[in-house]
Specification:
The chain is α/β, with parallel strands linked by helices and 508 residues long. The protein folds into 2 domains: 229 residues, Rossmann fold, CATH 3.40.50; 247 residues, P-loop containing nucleotide triphosphate hydrolases (Rossmann fold), CATH 3.40.50.300. It has 17 helices and 22 strands. α13 runs parallel beside α15.
């Protein structure tokens, strides 16, 4: 029996579910029942099973799974894809089923008042037999569909919860919801049985499905507030992405690294900081990918490991374009200094993209990473989801002290901003704008360092050209205004060829 002094804090039990223990500030309250409610497809059963599986995988204990709906056979088969061999765990005495499901070939005969006496006896026996401290029950709604007397069922559920608390078991109970933001559970009584309530949602936003988790009630304990995205990973299970719960504990480096162009380094006050996140924004064809390519090449020349995450062009296109600028991506990859990963943004949700990126970062351990481009990823998410993705990605990069280089495409050819810029501008360390400049019937290119956190920088807009040797930055535009807005104007025609020639820069 659980004993606790009046002034003793409630102990929490780590679940082992990735990200979940962070938003719960340590796990589920030990020795108490937690209701997990959600609509169809919200992963209630997966979470209940994973609550037991993580304990078993860690070699710490055992668990009992009570099923009111699906048969044990179905549970075993459904969880194989997640890498959980439940049958093997049963044979090892670490997992036990209590089958309370209604069999399709059996007619239920009620000969007296309904009660859980037989179920309680079976459950307690299973717990004692394998020494379980964790119990999962899926799903309470099936009990209400079998029996009409809801008041009696409610009383019996309270008796069930009391028994679990008496023996000190930590339990997860699932229940079905009708609406994503309606009542907590279908029958309106399930939430009163449990000490804690967790809501799982499977929301359709802008033709995209997005799963979230929210801790509604944790009686007597603290927890993070709000909704957090989660996804289900094969061979792993449910993974919570606690983006807004991340603390700002990133290190701050004074070490500078080169951008790949000396003139750009001078404009940035001596280069980028080692742990900075750089955003390069511009219209199509302004040279964003070229600047990213030179950034990676500069890292490889210093024997730094570089990761390129492309969402607009194929690997073959990137390698061909790099060769056109005199950069050998193939040689860099052969030396183990470059890894290129190209995916269509639409193949998965942003949560899955984020987890995949983190996996690449953990496995390859790069010093520099390029994401080209964020605008492509923006297409497959809602505004809120994209913002959370950016926060999660930049936080992870900064924690690992990796130099991040992101590109963003503006919606208009001349000037303008993108939604992407608005989302990321406040959490980036540097912002570089690339713009087309139309002057006197000729299209030119302009570059400016809009932001350089922690360092003085050149605030002028400089003209640049692109040739077979890459990007070359020349002299500032003089007597010209309205470049960034897309409406440049000047009073006197300017011959920029002299400035470019004086800089030793070749014209296209």
């Amino acid at each position: 029996m659980e004993t606790r002094s009046p002034n003793k804090a409630i102990e929490k039990l780590e679940t082992g579910i990735p990200g979940f223990d962070l938003i719960t500030l340590g796990g589920l309250p030990k020795g108490r029942t937690t209701l997990v409610a959600g609509t169809a497809g919200s992963a209630k059963t997966v979470m209940a099973a994973q609550f037991l599986a993580e304990e078993i995988k860690a070699g710490k204990g055992s668990g009992v799974f009570v099923t009111f709906e699906e048969s044990p056979k179905d549970i075993r088969n459904n969880m194989i894809s997640l890498g959980w061999d439940i049958r093997a765990w049963e044979e090892e005495g670490r997992w036990a089923f209590v089958d309370a499901s209604l069999q399709p070939d059996h007619e239920e005969i009620v000969s007296g008042p309904f009660d859980f006496s037989a179920l309680l006896a079976r459950l307690e026996h299973a717990i004692q037999r394998i020494g379980a401290q964790r119990v999962a029950m899926d799903s309470l709604g099936a009990v209400f569909t079998q029996y009409e007397d809801r008041a009696t069922v409610r009383c019996e559920l309270f008796r069930l919860a009391s028994m679990l608390k008496r023996i000190g078991a930590t339990a997860v109970l699932t229940a079905e919801r009708i609406e994503e933001y309606g009542s907590i559970a279908r029958y309106g009584v399930e939430e009163f049985v449990a000490d804690n309530v967790i809501i799982l949602r499977n929301i359709l936003e802008g033709e995209k499905r997005r799963r979230t988790i929210e801790i509604l009630k944790f009686r007597g304990t603290m927890h993070q507030k709000g909704e957090y995205p989660f996804t289900i990973i094969p061979e792993q299970g449910l993974v919570v992405i606690p983006l807004s719960a991340m603390e700002l504990k990133q290190k701050s480096s004074d070490l500078r690294i080169t951008s790949g162009r000396e003139e750009l380094d001078r404009m940035c006050g001596g280069g980028f900081f080692r742990d900075s996140v750089i955003l390069v924004s511009g219209a199509t064809g302004t040279g964003k990918t070229l600047m990213a390519t030179e950034f990676l090449n500069a890292g490889a020349l210093n024997d730094e490991r570089c990761l390129f995450l492309g969402f607009e062009e194929s690997r073959e296109q990137l390698f061909r374009n790099a060769r056109g600028w005199g950069i050998d991506f193939a040689a860099m990859a052969q030396r183990g200094l470059l890894k290129v990963v190209c995916d269509y943004p639409e193949i998965m949700g942003l949560e899955d993209h984020l987890l995949r990126i983190k996996t690449h970062l953990d496995e390859f351990q790069p010093n520099r990473v390029v994401v080209d481009s964020l605008s492509a990823l923006e297409r497959v998410s809602t505004m809120k989801g994209f913002r959370e993705f950016i926060v999660g990605l930049t936080s992870f990069i900064k924690h690992q002290e990796i130099a991040g280089f992101f590109t963003s495409t503006t919606p208009t050819l001349l000037g303008g901003t993108s939604i992407t810029e608005a989302h990321i501008s406040t959490i980036t360390d540097s912002i570089i704008l690339l713009r087309y400049v139309e002057l006197f019937g000729e299209m030119r290119r302009g570059l400016t360092v809009l932001k350089m956190r922690g360092s003085a920088h050149d605030k002028r807009i400089r003209e640049f050209v692109i040739d077979s040797d890459g990007l070359h930055i020349g002299q500032p535009f003089r007597d010209v205004s309205g470049i960034l807005s897309g409406h440049p104007s000047c009073g006197i025609p300017i011959d920029h060829s002299a400035d470019m020639a004086g800089s030793g820069i070749r014209q296209e």
